[in-house]
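Input record (one chain):
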Amino acid sequence: MSKREIIDFILEINKGAKPEFLALFSINELDNYLEHLMELDLEEIAVCA
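The corresponding structure, as predicted from the sequence alone:
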């Protein structure tokens, strides 16, 4: 996945994130952050169900 794609996925989950800020991070850092957000998103879905 490209850096732009990772940023786009992050922005879908974290609406308050700024693309300019996210662009400062490496692909690995962004990938780790996206993984973290996805885990939190899944936990939220499980709690709401």
